User: What shape does this take?
Amino acid sequence: MFLFKTIMKNIIQQFFYPLPFCIWLSFTGLILFSFSKKKKIGKKILITGLLLILFLSSSSVSDRMLGVLEKKYEPDTTQLSCPIVKNNSLVKYIVVLGGGQTINAALPITSQINIVTLVRLIEGIRLYKKISDCKLVLSSGKISGAIPDGDLMTNLAKELGIKNRDIILESESRDTKDQAKFIKAIVKKNPFILVTSASHMPRSIAMFHKVGLNPIPAPTEHRVNISKSLFPALLFPTTSSLLNVERALYEYLGIFWAKLRRQI
Assistant: This one.
């Protein structure tokens, strides 16, 4: 049942993403313009779809959409000088949330873990090495029959020098809501750092607060770098901008869905 719900949710989400939405909109306009009497309406729909994809593929637009999420929690750019260092002696756990994988035994482990998970794990290990006497909690379950992200994260962490006794694996969760619940059972009332993507941090923090936890946010995997200067490149469409819009919409839809289900 969970797998079916996940598949349906992913299918529905696709219709809200910029590329498929704009393509279907333009295609609909083209069909009306070419094969019906509603040529004016078809022409307007076609032009709207093309202009919309041009608009959303501009970094000046996508950076602002994603930047709202990424800037909510400040990153640790001072090597733990603040604010985490103030709780250095109190922090007992560093929790890293997984973000996906591509299982292929022919590839090195760094290629099997997707870039989102890889960046989160590296940041978690960096913080782990700055704080003494803490545990690294790697949290990510599996959707179907695949190997849980957490298993790959654990193997990579060991290869990068983290001792097995300092790793706690949480591999039962299926989504962020589950992660908050299962991690609560691990960390209990102890202070801990939460590592996840900057855009995912607002939703994660809200869900952790919902179960009574107060993590110290350590956002990573930032995608937005808004410059005060207006470079010509900001005016031209790029595929990376479309991906940023997709990431932003994914999180906004996730927040909306979580509020609807009273998960935050």
